[in-house]
Amino acid sequence: MVYCGKPSKGCSNCRERKIRCDQREPGCGQCEKRHQTCPGYRNLVDLMFRDESSHVIKKAKARARKKGNLIVEPSTPSGSEGRLSVTPEPRGKPSIAIVVPATPAPTSPADSDGWGFDDSLLMSPESGSWPITPPAMALYNIPPVCQEQGFAFFFSRFVTANETACHQNFDFVREVWKPSRTKRERQVDSVLASLTAVGLMGMASLQRRSDLMDAARKSYGVALGLTKDALKDPTEAVKDSTMLSILILGVFEMMAESPARVRTVTAFQEHVNGAAALARIRGPAQFQTRAGRRMFSMLCQRVVISCAMKDMPMPQPLKDLWHEMAKTLEPENPTRHLMPLVWQVLQLRHDIKNHIITDPGNIVEKLLAIEHDLEKLTNNMSPSWQYRQFKVTQHHDAVFEGYCHLYPSLHHANIWNCIRTTRILILETIISQISEDFSSFTPRLNSSRYIEEYNTARRKLKRLVYDICASVPQHLGLMDPVDGSIGSQDEEDASARITTVEVRETPSPPTSPSTRSCDSSTSPSEARRHATGLTILDVTKARDEDDEAERYMLLVSATSTVVWPLYLVGMSTACSEEMKHWVVGRLRMVTMETGIKQADALAGLIADEGVGAVDWIDPALEQQQAMGTDPLLLSPDMIQHTGHDGWGNGGGLYGLGLSPLQVPMEYMGDEFGVGEGDLVWV
Question: Where is composition skewed (Low complexity) in this entry (predicted)?
């Protein structure tokens, strides 16, 4: 099946006129304007491939007859179960050929197996280069056309596609494995079976076809058995092809649609644990090739996800191997410094959750130290990693607030957003820790010092969410890499571009009243309820264990680089109502354009969550808002001082509007203007 590129989604009338089709149901708007009957739309998946099976078979048979190096045992007469044994010439290293049941020639179209293809040709690895096929896995009866479709789908989504997430991008697969072009024997190795399983799983999910799902599971079972057999052989276990098979099987577990998501998470973690153990066996020798380094980097990213799921720190053996691999990276590559900082986050998360660190001041100081290092990393980016900023000259739905970024490549944009998302989690945790301490009965943090840290975190958080939004147009493929122009939304002229103007100074996020999360009619008790975004202690905001597993798998299985950053922005306390609607719209556009259903599911979670921006209803703050300043920032002037040491460092009574608190007996009297039983907001 030959991949023919991305076909047009429009109806035939719009394609003939070469105009943009809005693809409305039941008919498009262009046909409606011309008072024509819209002919409808094509099945895009069927159009992405062209069946050249007969041509390939003809060439293969001609090549085999010319070389005369194949011995084909004739099968039994039609109507009985025959066996086809294909034996290649010896090539120095013994191998076990696959022996599969022969496919009887159908006497009529109704007798066909449903695929209409002879079961005699299949892509297979070069003999002697890949793991030996064990006799136990000799039966692999997936129809060849079915396998070819899965093979092509995998390459289009996980090898050649630019929008593929970096931790699932197998663009190095050709350096590790390639199919044979000359042999007709059906010799199957773990790489071929695993990538076929993932490709068929993706097609089955997209087309809702149970037969493809069955073939995907069958191929997965074969790949799993072959990989286990390879791991038993010390020579085969350390090969790149074995590690590649395990990583691809991990993608299958990510994509698996199972009602019991907890079991899926467990299977994914088992694959990660197996790959991590194999990486330790392979040792520093695996870094001698580019593919080996890429696979180890991919593994480390998955181990980080697994550690977050299990509340564990990064294993020390993998950290030691990473430092060995980092010696091969370019000095200006920020990944050299980013990954160790991520490990610090995992360690701090583990220490807090296991009550190793309990003091709020200690927690906040460690968070501030990591944030300082991350900010320093962005400030010290080399010129080759810098991005350009543009402002559009007219409105575009995909450009938030009119500003967008242009990076040297999508890889650079991914690394920038990885740093930003890590910082957002850190800053949200700082805000949450300070707020929780100030809302407690006996706060332990120094008021003036940590109010300033709180305000600084709020300002940084708002800047980061706007920067992520500005990176989205390039992720969606809308920006011209040369001049920064944006694709037009004009239905009449799809080739038109929206011009942009490069800006030298970073525009400040707006501080308009639209950033507030609730209006003036909100009751005090509702307005003072404190909302939190995603933090390092809670990266899903799930209701229970099953919901947590569901959200984890939605995030790790999405193949678009922009899904996780957008989800984090949509759940942030710095996300306004306007930004939330924009984020939901971009995620749903990703689903429409790429078929990634996880993006739509995450958009629904953001829409249901509501706006998370923290709001303080206080006369002084309302006055700040009326003056056009940020109502979310606090100042020491908002503190009511009592001179009593029982309220924390310096004896400050924190009037931050966080939660209602019953006035204790010792604070009654005219000096404070409150009486017994009164409620104050602290």
Answer: 513-525
Amino acid identity of 323? Answer: H
* Beta strand 500-503 pairing with 497-498: unpaired
Burial readout 267-295 (b: 16 or more C-beta within 10 A, e: otherwise) = bbbebbebbbebbeebeeebbeeebbbbb
- Gap between the Cα atoms of 489 and 343, Å rounded: 43
Helix, coil or strand: residue 198? helix
Q: Which residues contact 606 (CB under 8 A, 6 or more apart)?
A: 567, 570, 571, 580, 583, 584, 587
Burial class (CB within 10 angstroms; exposed 0-12, middle 13-18, buried 19+) of 441:
exposed
Decide if pLDDT at 378 tops 70.
yes
Separation of CA 615 from chain center? 31
Q: 65 pLDDT exceeds 80? A: no
Mean pLDDT of the chain: 74
Instruction: Report the C-alpha gap between 505 and 484 in whole angstroms.
Output: 16
**526-559 per-position pLDDT tens digit:** 333 346 789 999 998 888 888 888 888 888 888 7
- Strand pairing category for 486-487 and 679-681: unpaired
Q: What is the DSSP string of 434-479?
A: HHHHHTSSS--S-HHHHHHHHHHHHHHHHHHHHHHHHHHHHHTT-B
Q: Under a CB-based contact definition with an 8 Å cutoff, are residues 237 and 230 in contact?
A: yes
Single pTM value for the model: 0.70
Q: Is 589 exposed, middle or buried (0-12, 13-18, 19+ CB in 10 A)?
A: middle
Bridge-based pairing of strands 71-72 and 2-3 is unpaired
CA distance 125 to 78: 31
